[in-house]
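User: I'll paste a sequence; please echo it back and then give the predicted structure.

Assistant: Echoing your sequence first, then the prediction.
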Amino acid sequence: MRSIRPPRPLPAAVGLATALALAVTACGPTEDKAADKPSAPASATPTPAADKGSGDLALPRDLADKLRKHGVDPEKWRDGEWKNWDRDKWLRQAQDFVNPVIEGLWSPERMRTAQDPAKTMTASDVSGGQNVSDPVPRPVRAVREKTPYTRHGAPVGKLFFDSPKGPMVCSGTVIKDVNNPGRSNLVWTAGHCVHAGGAGGWFRNLVFAPAYNNNGRSPAALRNAPAREHYPYGVYWADWAATSGEWIRNGGPTGGTGAAHDYAVLHVKPERGGKSLEETVGTAIPVNFGAPDTRRIGAMGAWGYPAAPPYDGVIMHKCVDRPGRFSVGPNTLPMHRIGCSMTGGSSGGGWFTNKPGGGLALVSNTSIGPVTHGWLAGPRLGAGAQQIYTATSKKFSRR
């Protein structure tokens, strides 16, 4: 890779960091002591459209039908068949996403076992795009976000899911929904946090926990913390996921040529309660699909929960830097790149810029980085990303 260039002025960096810190929640986390008790799944009460399996474990009919289409018994799926990652059982196509609620699966203890799906690249991985990429940015050391996160980073959280390698973790952001103003249930993350790309299919048991580990406790202290500190706003199960066709076809272990389209939108529902995600968290971030050319952006910030060493995956961190361009090859779209020491686990975390007139807009998400952990790259969000977002928003319009 190219030599490190000198430090660059960051006139907007302070304002950017301050803007997210001021994203105070309108509602605040629940203080209900019942939050420490096991909660009932959103699908616990069967409806006429539910599959009459075993009482409270009934699945919505559309999910049950999808599983049967692929030769999977819905109740066996609940009882552990989801652990079968045989090629013919691993749902791969865009329309095949299935994620029924499994009550109690994501306990605080299981969340702590989740690993990072790092997308790290060696020098040989990036050599093909050097005629497009700007010089390698100087390293920027990630700093811890202030606590409680419900006041300083409420829309940022952790995404948990199961893969053939076991429980995994990414980061995500609560985003605005134009068709459900003030009541969004949308989460932005990376494509590789929901789908394995060309070599696999949809991951399973996807849940989102905004403001995870609200008080920034150490791993040892978190073990004895009540559930409401692990997930102060509760746990939200994805009932829909959408990512790009480019990622599904071309995404790979180190990002591949699908990295420039490594983004995803989730629609989620609470494991308990009826309020929307935005109402519960108290805020959501708009997405800017028309951000200016990377070189015209003064500063960009990335937030997430880095999990690979030297980080432990339970503390929210952020990096702010002036972005440059990065490309994985001469025929791929250039991505944003910033200096940042965050590691795997921060994947999918939102990248923000200041909006004219104040506030933040999401313009990218963490996708890939080098094995040396000196920088991160994220996709530019254009027409393709907007199409996925719009389709997901319309699907759940006014629900």
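Residues 13-27+50-395 form a domain with the Thrombin, subunit H fold (CATH 2.40.10.120). The chain has one domain: 13-27+50-395.
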